[in-house]
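Intended use. Records like the one below are meant for learning the mapping from a protein sequence to its folded structure. Do not use them to infer anything beyond what is encoded.
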Amino acid sequence: MQENTNPYQKVEGMLQYVCIRDAVKAYQKPGTDPKSDEWKVSIVLTDEDYVDALEEWATKIDCKLSLKKVKTATFEEVYKTAPPENAGKNVWVWTLRKSVELGKTGKPVPDKFKPKVYQRKGATLVDITNTALVGNGSTGVVSTDLFVRNNGSVSIYLKNVLVTNLIEWIKTDASDSYVEGSEFEDVVQPQVEVNKNSTKTKVKQEDPEEDLEDSPF
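Structure written out for the chain above:
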């Protein structure tokens, strides 16, 4: 294998978090320069030998990977879908990204180079990027591109996605289930007058400070 060739031009597996129709905010480490939004997709790898070869190849060409090892036993809890049927004790989630901007130029990626989602229907390859949302647990093939910098380091980027088994995610609007004034449909129970001569039980008041540990702020 020649240096800087790409043996991972197409990677097959279970798909997670396919964010291609709409780009998402890129993770930014504290104290670093702002990053542009990105398209991204994660693919689940189950073959440890395949993963070892991938990591060895990436080290050889100085290519950073976003690769997370996940215990199969906790996969469903984390990703809200069952793990691949052929999963062993562990699986590896490989996330591939592409910025919406061309390098540091600030210029947007031309339409023809934006990643797309495809599905084969008969003998025809159909672009479903804007007509279907790919849900977690779908399966398919992710294609990739290499970019070699002047210093010799390499980055591997998301190119396109081919969905072979689509589990479509139907986006719902919370307002669809809202009925105006529905909170008043039930009968309001009248307040019960407390007998002044009865023994009153003092209700324990929670200390507001006790809730601070569970506060999101």
